[in-house]
Amino acid sequence: MTQQQSGDFGFGTQIRKSPFFDATVRWGATGFSVYNHMYIPRDFGNPEQNFWSLIQTAILCDVAVERQVEITGPDAAKFVQFLTPRDLSTMAVGQCKYVILTNQHGGILNDPVMLRLGANHFWLSLADSDVLLWAQGVAVHAGYDVTISEPDVSPLQLQGPHSGKIMQSLFGPKIADLKYYWCRPLQLNGIDLIVSRTGWSSELGYELFLRDHKEGDRLYETIMQAGQPFDLRPGHTSTIRRIEGGMLSYHADMDITTNPFELDLDRFVNLDMDADFVGKDALRQIKAAGVTRQQIGVVIDGAPLTQPNTRFWDMTIDGRVIGKITSAVYSPRLRKNIALAMVAAEQAGLGTKFLVHARDGDRTAVAVEKPFYDPKKSIAKG
């Protein structure tokens, strides 16, 4: 598809295009999916090459679909604490935190990265669900003095081992001082940005939050041109790398029926803090009772999977369904079919063997430790 044709691409105006859409098509994007009611590039020709580029050099990803929910006002700090079971009492201005948002039953609504831009100024950088509407509804009934909106903000992810060098060529040597999960306001050739040391890749990386959609094309091209000496490639978020790193995808590995304890996310839940939050009583009850399901890592035998799963695959033991594969892919680095799965808690032990009813037939599988690669995230932390 050429840039000229790209204006006719799509299903209608109800699915939005990012400020970088035309640039991604110009640089070779041929396939898109929909996330947060927007197009996201999913195909630049070869997912395995995209993976190797990510882990060996660097890729630039259009992730404008990570919509921001902006929360401001006198009670903003109190309100964001009310939305999450993670203790935010020590969160500083300029800091980012991975948080879980739960409903009154303890089910997960979203798992965004929160950015604190001011004492009472926050962004929630969202996974794929309508948190803006939920947060506005909670605010109406909770009585907090806050303003909640979706700002004109669109992020790009620059990820991979060469991303730091590219960032220094763009912003100078001081950008190297930006710590993991911190952010700062910056300008690039007059373009206003928030830059963070975050990303959905498990690799060294940065996110550049564009604050004016009209500058989208210029920002994308500026980064790509600066990255050419470092073998920067246009790319998309890597299913291979995110499953290697045990990174969760909303609607796949979790949803509104999943609670944090089933996903081993206890460290992001503080039931002892004084602050109240949505779902606190429910999560206390769930913890006391114990979970009936547990997420595990799985290695699936047989020939390499030719593509990630597009539906959940049943897992059985002696003909009895005990769980489902939620995300599966072949890792060319590990030379294994790896997967995340949700199974009955009594069948979650390491070494447990299953039969997976995959797209191409039944395959044997075994429960293993997760993540599958770099469990301490030493690469991403730099």
What's the short story on this structure?
The protein is of the alpha+beta class. The protein is built from ten helices and 21 strands. It has helices at 3-6, 21-26, 47-56, 76-83, 131-142, 163-171, 216-227, 239-244, 280-289, 378-381; strands at residues 31-35, 38-43, 58-62, 68-72, 96-98, 101-102, 108-110, 113-118, 121-125, 147-149, 154-159, 183-188, 191-196, 205-210, 232-235, 293-300, 313-317, 320-331, 336-344, 353-358, 361-368.
Largest sheet: 6 strands, mixed
C-alpha end-to-end distance = 37 Å
Q: Name the average pLDDT.
A: 96
The level-1 CATH class of the largest domain: Alpha Beta
* Overall number of structural domains: 3
Counting DSSP E segments of at least 2 residues, the number of strands comes to 21
As residue ranges, the low-confidence spans are: 1-5
CATH fold group of the largest domain: Gyrase A, domain 2
